[in-house]
Amino acid sequence: MPTLGEMFHRLLNAEGQTRAARSVEYFGWFDMSLGMIILVAPFWAASILRIPAPTLEGSNYIRLVGLLVGGLGMLYVVSGRLNATGFVFASLLDRPIVPVIMAVLWYLKILPGPMALAFSISDFGGFLWTLWAWGADTRYRPDTDSGFVAQMAAGFFAFVSGVVRNSRTFHPDGRVFRGTVRSLHPSDPGLARAAERLVGAVLLRIGMGVMKRGMPAWLADRIPDAPSIAARFYTSSTPEEIRLERHAGEDLDLLATAGGDRLWKLLINLSTGGFANGLHQFDYFRNIYSADVPYKIDNGGLDVWVRLVPDLDPAVPTPSNGVAREAALTSAVARRATVRVEAQRTGDTNAPFVPISEIRFEEEIEIDQEALHFDPIAGRDFVPHGFLTRVRRAVYPASFANRGQTVAERARREQEGAGSRLFRYLNPRPIVNDRMPQPPEDAYLYTQGHWVRPVGLIVLGIVLLSGLYLAIRFTRDSPVEYADDELHFKHGSTGGERLTGIPYWFWVALPELFPELLPDRKTGRGFASFGMIYEKGGDPYELPVGVSMRNVRGIDMVYLNCAVCHTGTVRTAAGAPARVISGMPAQGFDLGGWAKFLMAIPLSEKFTPDRMLDQIRKMQDDPRRVVAKPDLINRLIFKFYAVYAARERLLMLRDRLSFVDNGTWGPGRVDTFNAPKALLNFPMKEHPDFRELIGNADFPSIWNQGPREGMQLHWDGNNTSVNERNLSAAFGTGAYPPTLDAPLVLRTAGWLLSKAQPPPFREFFPINESLATQGEGLYKEYCAVCHGTREAPYRHNPQLKEELVGTVIPIAKIGTDRWRLDSYTWLVAANQSTLYAGYEKEWGFDQPYPQRFSHFRKTGGYANAPLDGIWLRAPYLHNGSVPNLRELLEPASKRTKIFYRGNDVYDPQNVGFVSNIAEQDGRMLYRFDTAKPGNGHDGHEGKEYGTDLPPADKQALLEYLKTF
Amino acid sequence: MKTKTRIAIVLLIVTAAAVGITTWYKLYRDVPQPSWIASDRRDAFLNGWIASNGNSGIPYWIWLALPRMFPEYIHYPGGYAAFGISWEQGKEMPAGFAKKTIGYTRVSGNCALCHAASYRKGADDVPEVVAAVPGHALDIEPLLVFFQQCAQDERFNASEILAEVSMATKLSILDKLIYRFILIPQTRRALLDKRALIDAELLSHSRNPHTDPLFTQESMKGLATSMKERRAPKYPLPINTGLAATGKPIFDNFCGSCHSDGAGKRLGTVIPIAEIGTDKDMLKQGGYTAPSLDGIWVRGPYLHNGSVPTVGDLLNPQTQRPAVFFPGNDLLDVVKVGFVSNVPEEPGRRRFFQFDTAKAGNGNAGHTFGTNLSPIDKSALLEYLKTL
User: Fold this and answer.
1) What is the ipTM of this complex?
2) CA B89, CA B91: separation in Å to the nearest integer?
3) Three-state DSSP class for B119?
4) A691–B89 CB contact, under 8 Å
5) Which residue among A62, A542, B346, B354 is least packed, with the fewest CB closer than 10 Å?
């Protein structure tokens, strides 16, 4: 029975640990650290493992768990270090049970999933590791230093040499020379002793590292390559003896490579073209060959770096290609060239390389090079050490064992082909060849191409590559780009798809699957029945104006952009072709109806993954489709995730917006500022002020934004910054601060500054020019004070006494319907100044765009807007309650009480859209009742507003307004 | 020393330095508030950071997300404004909240939480914010209870909060990790204790404002100086100067002996309770101090316990003063000087607290000076008081 002291000693030193015991020890360290963390930070550990937040008492019991886990870990560590085989075996019995138990407990909802998974992975993984290590221990000798990396490398190189190259992986072809070594008598006594040990004969194998015989010369000369020298120092009994097999201890195999005095420098050098570190690809004699491992010499007294330096004969011209290089070597041997062996003390990169021995070429010899193999381990009192030596100890024998043992065998395997070589590699036969090297005196791991490692490497490679592919796919975020500015306005993305995008295939499938929710109940027309503009004719695959597309995480998503509410159509007569006008209010688009459609979807039992995929399958091969049909990954996402996620999101939107009745909007209108209340999640249903719940307003035109900077914008003039107003409106396209695509939105904003212009009325209908000129005077007298001039910048120059364009008229004075004004409260204005917060500085630098909102103000009336393109902005007033300009020049009592919105056929006489018929070309129009709340058409009447003018004057004024 | 050891040590030092610098940057680095706060006294009062230690406050993004996540605990629209907190349009932070970056950005209460208010001249007007006046509209207990309710809700966890925050901004991965593993759990614990928003000094000041040495703190020195120079805000509506002129001698006669400065006057001294006759519940000194009346128009409701809504009511005998009223409204009562207090709820805005003068500590008796004046004299006096 050992004493406790002895046990402690063994614990501290951990000698003779088997691989299995070492795996148990490392697992124990892992458990100990885990236990420590749980003990010290139970709340944090609980939240990581998704355990419900514990009470203070509960957390103390979690600490106890941590203590137990840590204690278990300590047992593992101690037993592992003490090489306790019985304990290791026991750990093989109890750890594989853990995943089973975890699965059961998780199924019974006793434990949360992440916790069960974490413990299963760690315990089962540890079990597998110990199991593998146990197997390795029984098959192989105990390895002292050879580590996991060395074994992986051995398997890899065995594969490359045996299957791929059918030769040595590096230096596949070389030339062998015999030489003699004499000492150069260095002054340092240790070096001198080492030099004495090298005296004798030497076998040199010289060749290029990468090139293979059989490569065309032009290719071989272009690949970056480095030569190397392998030297076997031996004492020959006769002058002609060639030492094919290394005599253990007596012989030293030294490998030296040119192109860098460390292996990593060589690798970098070659991968960057092979121009550094003095590498000469075509001249063996101009290179310096370094043994990339340090050697302990002189009985361990000295630790040196060794290199071989050929004596360069300056008279010999430098070879310039591979053929010349070999010729130069031949002639150098003929004249008995020499190569010096030099040593440098490790630890001091400035220490000199001291020449200790000299090798002299004697003659070139022909031997079976495949039978000649080098063991770069200790010999002649030169002991290599370090990580690379450990790896080489495993790799070199493995590579040798897997290739042809003779030149003839290599040639035969070359004929066989890579397939049979692969088969041979995967099915190693027991070794019968007595020429196979025996394990040398210092133990190293001797592998025979065990299949686990290369298969594992291949699987790892597949996993890494798939991971890379998935990483690239799921971080993808690329909008469809348009070169033309107007096309970009109509279809460019604002970034909304990133958060609220609808997959393209859902977009095309939904109207087909839910025709009963469409206004005209017809399939095959997409969303045209809501008034969306399909420029190419209306097939459901086309993306209408105002719908943008972006590939987000591998799925093509669509969503709305600015143009959906700010692009309309106009026709000169029924049956005439519609002309699409960008920047015009979308007077035919029923946004409220479309939103109602979307929000009814999640309530339908048809909205299931199976029905959706069925519908998509029916449609995905149509030649009119805009994107490719969904691939396997996307189909899986649609089936198992997308429909459920969409349902949740739509239900949330439906709930938050439920206080808004979007059925009252009608085409061309929206309740602008009740939506932000939903975004800010105001509790509008608990104690609402009913006066703020209806804020219906006409879509405005958005031409000529440049001159409008500084004017009070929005119908109630609540913001004076065009940029802020743009960003605020962009929320409607799904562009929130984190998802906004600033460059693309800025591009649209730039286009709207001055390039977006209304088309002239004259292009569509004639204007009585003389009457219009008469109207100009009337306009200047009655309208110009509030509405400014006809042309930008709309402010008069010189300024009028009172310049009111772009300013707010108090509600008492203008007298129009106040529902829209009251829907925007100062609470909304104050809270809006938190939007885009946090964007002021990026890395300490001011960010010019976007900036936090700071310009929203509650006003007390409606703003006077410039009248550019006014003919296309019907119906009129902020709530679109007056169908045409002629009626606006009438007092409210004479204006139509009920009319129809949504028509795009124009009425040039009354200056507005045809609004007295309920149906146009088979499409039902929206019945607008001015008596309903929010739809009042009073106001903007009285002498100052021209409603008292004689009819002839009104006609002239109308004619003039057509010229805007 | 072997190269490998050397490399390992260097790597360790580099890693430790990187971790240290990141920790300092994300948790301790002090960034001064923007210059517009420091340069203007009013803004410094309303939004300046006065907390003394780096642990104060709620992390900014949590503060921003809570009203959007839990409107069912606020009951009225407007986010924090629904608690009676004043908020100037265009300003990022409401009055009484300071935003400051010490490592991470956080929000803490400051003096203005209790000492700033707003007024409206008309029912449709936008509230104007005034600094250094009694925060008559602030309902502090519901605000603290709101935070407690949020913290007790099981939705107060990293996933839900970060989901809401991700609609407002894009946090970096490191910030998300810091929020998930440090800030959110820490804040939850602090809010459960009602500790987070108002740090210890402000809390003790609120309990004992007269003796507590709050102003000796370094961060408060600048504030203290500016407070000494600050003048009361002017009455915002037109004053009938003629009427006010006739009110001045009435004030000097009936009010000046206690409320004016000068020889023989008792401004700033304790008036014995027997003489003043107001509610005895808070009595500590044997009476109540006679305050100066500058800016009295914005200091409603009146008396030490806020039991009389307007000065006009104070000039009536106790039986004619309202027994139940609704303070917290910021609409000015232009006739009686004070705030409109007879509206129990403004729909879509707020429900006001029901002040019952019969409850203990709420008595509105006493201070019957001037109740015998004629109506004309009273209106002249009120007009004069508007000028103070």
Assistant:
1) 0.90
2) 6
3) strand
4) no
5) B354
